[in-house]
User: Fold this.
Amino acid sequence: QFIELMGDDPKSFGKWSQSGNRSVAKEKTSESKKNEPVSPQLIESWHQALPQKIRTYLTEERGISHEVINHHRIGWYVDSRNIGWISFPAAEEGVYTHVKLRRDPFDQNQKPKSKFYPEGSHAGLFGGDLPKDCSEAYIGEGEPDTLLMQSLGLVTLTGTAGAKTFKKEWVRKLKKLKKVTVVYDNDRDGRAGSQM
Assistant:
């Protein structure tokens, strides 16, 4: 059973604490070939480079717990133009398939708003594999909202290509569940995506 529920501003869930201290690390490897797994060592190096300012933004402004940030190895990627991106590694069955990169939240002029690593990667599910005993899950809109919901103890996944993309193979993964609730933004894309 699929139930539609429109999301609210994540700031309404309150403020969260801060800790940790990270420095910026620049990209150390060349672009991977698309469709090849992303190295766990690369993911870890980006996670260790997550700046304190970005970690504080994720915890205080987006309501994501430190435990969830660390569990998903959220990090900081610096591209060849010396532009920083928040990295959200997408894994399936323990293998990193690709990384969703989102622009620095303190640089609203940065274009594009998001992109994939490696370049040319295809959309996938972000949020981890479903627990074996899971009977209910949520579909969030975007990685930060999904991580907020996970911080609140909810099993939540999202597609890495926005609200308008939901692949048939993802539906097959969710068929075993008794209930799936779609929590998208109450905007044009969110409303359109929730009708798919």
